[in-house]
Amino acid sequence: MELNINSVQTEREEIEKCSLCKIDSERGDKDYYAVIDMGRDSENASADDVVTLEVVCCKKCRSNFIKRYIVPKAVGVMFPLVGVVLTSIRSVYEPMKAVFTALPLVVFIISVIIGVVVAYSLNKTISSKANMHTHMKISEIDSFKELKDKGYEELKMDKFSSIPAFKKADKN
Ligand SMILES: [Zn+2]
What we know:
Elements: E1 10-12, E2 32-39, E3 50-57, H1 59-76, H2 78-88, H3 90-99, H4 103-130, H5 145-149, E4 153-154, E5 165-168
Parallel strand pairs: 1-3
Antiparallel strand pairs: 2-3, 2-4, 2-5
């Protein structure tokens, strides 16, 4: 990728095969662009300090990112929901209150904690599985080396993966 960061703020890759597939012989077709922002701290902040990059991405890599982002949250939120429902049913919360008054609240708090723990471990498991096929940390691919050397970091990511947006690619 040729990056001219001083004159343009959006750089789009012009290749036909996925940049994010790890195994060269299995690289998918260009179906999407994964869009990420990279930025750096600078004393004289200017627009040049944030660059938007559109990286060629196949269907499978996109679905890896989406699964990784959505599944842990969707599953994790079920636990507090069940906690709310359970502790608001009279035949459940009254016996609990008979044990001690704050027990329904304690049960709810525990359901939130379980939800967070489950979401975290799902995030970890799904990321590491997806990472066997897809570069889940997009800025770790070779074409970003130059930017990283200049002090640019990906702006939206967590411990396990980048959090890109996606654009449909035009077919040639
Ligand atoms: Zn791919």
